[in-house]
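for the recovery benchmark. tokens below, seq after
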């Protein structure tokens, strides 16, 4: 049986349960409207994000089509919360450009310092059930209305995004959990994204 929660139970409450499953978390999120889903996802601190990553290890595959449908002609926005101590709320925005899924980090509070943090999104080559945000591959040009493309190889962008690969697992149809790596090594940094 999947249902485990009352109407007063939050996503964070469920993650306190030792026996919680990915299917139960997905059922909870799927029952929420978009605003409540964003609020509950953004209430997760680092410890709960780490647990979410672990609980979703055997989740069904999450694909590029789940992230942004092939038929999409406009950007698709996902609200995020990361496990960093500051500027934890952000969005990742995605666009299909010449057969490739490109994205950037929308965070007006620190974009002046970090740059837009462009990346290319692919199915993770060695993790077929996960998608990969590859910050070492940026698009050659920005979609209309997006900030100019900047590489992640110099200045402060290198400190934040240099050598980064983010791996993302399904939580539900509308939510994923990501874990960051730098130069191929996990860095104990996580983020949760949910579609707007």
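predicted aa per position
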């Amino acid at each position: 049986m999947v249902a485990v929660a009352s109407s007063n139970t939050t996503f964070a409450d469920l993650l306190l349960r030792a026996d919680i499953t990915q299917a139960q978390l997905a059922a909870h999120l799927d029952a929420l409207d978009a605003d409540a889903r964003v609020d509950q996802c953004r209430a997760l601190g680092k410890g709960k994000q780490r647990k979410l990553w672990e609980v979703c290890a055997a989740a069904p595959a999450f694909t590029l089509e789940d992230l942004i449908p092939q038929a999409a002609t406009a950007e698709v926005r996902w609200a995020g919360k990361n496990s960093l101590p500051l500027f934890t709320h952000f969005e990742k925005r995605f666009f299909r450009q010449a057969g490739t899924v490109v994205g950037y980090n929308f965070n007006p509070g620190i974009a002046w310092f970090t740059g837009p943090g462009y990346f290319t999104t692919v199915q993770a080559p060695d993790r077929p059930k996960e998608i990969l945000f590859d910050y070492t591959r940026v698009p050659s040009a920005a979609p209309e209305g997006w900030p100019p493309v900047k590489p992640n190889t110099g200045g402060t962008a290198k400190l934040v995004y240099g050598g980064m690969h983010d791996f993302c697992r399904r939580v539900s149809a509308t939510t994923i959990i990501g874990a960051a790596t730098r130069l191929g090594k996990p860095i104990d940094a996580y983020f949760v994204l949910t579609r707007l």
